[in-house]
Amino acid sequence: MDEDAPNKRNKLFSLKELSVKSLAPIVEKKVYENNSTQIDLIASQQLLAYFLRDTCNAEQMNKFTKAMTSSLNLTDLKITHEKINKETCDKIFGFKNLSSLELGSLASWTMFHLDQSLFADVPLVDVIEALRNILCEESRIQLQSLAITNDPVTFRTGWMCEMKGILPALTTLNLEKMPISESEFDVICESLSLLESFYVSKIGNLTGISNLKNLQDFHSIDSQFKGPEDVIDIFKLKNLKKLDFRGEQCVHLPCVRLYLDCAMSLFSLEFFNCMKNAISAEDVNLLATSHPQLKRIFVLDTRLQDVSQLETSNDQLHLISKGSLWQCLESLKLLDIRTQSELMNDVCVEIIGYLSNYEAYSKTVIFDCFGVLTQILRGELKFFIGKQIHANVLKCLELLCRGGRIEMFNKLTKLNFIDLLLETITWFNGRSDSVVWNIHSSSWNILHDISTSTLPEKSREFLFCQGIELLENAEHVLIAPKSCLDLMTKYLESRTEQLEDFLIYSKLVRKVAGNVADLAKLKFTPLFIATCNFLGTLHNICAVGRTEMTKFIINSIMYAFNVFLSADWLTQAYGFRIVESMLFYTDRETVKIVFIKHLKGLFLTLTQNEDKECATGPVISLCFTAFHLVERTYTMNELRTAENIAQISNLLQLLKHNKSIEYVDVMADFNSKLTSPMLLAWTKFMTTS
Predict the structure, then answer these.
(1) Rounded to whole angstroms, how far apart are CA atoms 60 and 576?
(2) What's the pTM?
(3) C-alpha gyration radius of the chain
(4) The domain over range 181-321 is classified in CATH as 3.40.50.2300
(5) Where are the domains of the chain?
(6) Which residue from 254, 252, 307 is spatially nearest to 285, judged by alpha carbons?
(7) For residue 216, what are the CA distances in angstroms to 94, 213, 330, 608, 639?
(8) Which DSSP string corresponds to 645-660?
(9) What would the pLDDT profile of 131-153 be if each residue is shown by its tens digit?
(10) Number of H helices, E strands in the chain
(11) pLDDT in tens, 521-532
(12) How many C-beta neighbours within 10 Å does residue 31 have?
């Protein structure tokens, strides 16, 4: 794996992940006892991974209560990187509905290691005892799929004969990362007669495979076949639909040639993986003639990998290669990117060429480009892609965002496109160049034409969480365009209840508010307004009644206003109205404590500023908003102090003396809204000649 490739993401990615992180402490405190609740498969797997993250600590799995074990709705269990101890086994033993099990770390399961290993660096494992310790009887009886991957190990003698006794319903066995002997292969074929899918590696011959009458899917990786006699038993499998003779560590394998030398046919075969095999156009023609049901031949890393198509007698037969974008897309659905980084980078470079000459190609080609990029970044394989490939993917996406090209996509595809953009951008969080900025902007500007109210609730929650990730992890809040904040504000406004996880949103508020002053200094008014609006809405939904949060938000915005005072009065007026709406939910004492120093600073700045623009409509609008806050904050007796009277009189005299052409319109607007006797008196004072 590329050492530059990230190996995990410590970021909030979805509400499901947020809920898992919220649920975990409840489990740790042993207060979760709701036996009627069933958690879905994905959340169950995430929660289990959370508790297995450090199982070398014997106390970690003890935090799993019995109620939690029964509530986890696990049917598929993957234990791929964790160490296992007795306590862990006891907890996993409680899962009674398992149908699929993947074990990828047996080399670290020292409690099941035996002393008779022939190789110092390859442990001898009692896999039967391991399965008995982690699978209860119910799961052993119904388990259908077992995969043993990652670290190489060897198993004790006789394990194959016992496998059928403890896993009687097994239909899939994956041993592709664990070489077995020819005798072990033969015994497996005799004892596990129900197998429908079978993965092996570095096997020398297929003797005995004819016993697997139900086999439909056979994978033999890096096979060590020497002659046709090592392969010929495969032709007794009348139900076989998928045959995989690919190479991983080996190249120019003779498997396909030896298969054809048998001069026989598998009439049900639909797919043949010939990757890293010696294969020619004549061989493809021979396969087409002898295998009437064959639809796909995988030929990457062969001499045919750049061929788009060959004319054969079988019209439905297609090569899966990199001869065209469509074929790249098909290839990526089957490839293990961890072994094909150079090829993936070549594909990205080719797509850059397509997108750089966008007008010369049809929409179909561009759609295929998007499909290829999606496949490159799919699922867990993205963690194995190096930095160079990610950089090229980023360049491809940036090209695809130019000139309204994404308008060809429908709403659903646009949402998928946004997901892809935000997934990719997280790998380049430390960069601040124009490519990253364009990707960020494009991902949210797409939403201008999408009414969020028409989206399902889950989609809106997903987009909101993507916004949180963007804001939490960006080095500067400017990286999030105005449309991102506007969308998140709309989502918040659509909620009728308060946000429950206050700590998460408190952290978000502090991140955004902490950058407001920077926005003010940069005089980026539209984004500044959007940020203040977002903070105000977020406050009214999750911070109502929390005095310290109210103080923090208001102080952040007001500090920024003080920076803005001599530069942008319209923003100043807008911002004060947001603060006013926030203070509506706050007690008078809090308002007084937070607001007094800012209000005095505002009055002082206004009365001392000689700029003629100070008397324009926005400034008068700002002053009336300020007066409204003054009235709500102070009692009449407090307002009669000499200091306050002097400040208010100076300000009123200034505004009265410097009336602008917009003054009448502003006054008419406010006269229609004012009901306060004090504000009406001030209005009368200002309009008297």
Answers:
(1) 50
(2) 0.55
(3) 34
(4) no
(5) 10-170, 181-321, 336-450
(6) 307
(7) 33, 9, 21, 86, 87
(8) HHHHHHHHHHHHHT--
(9) 998 898 999 999 999 998 766 77
(10) 29, 13
(11) 555 556 566 666
(12) 11
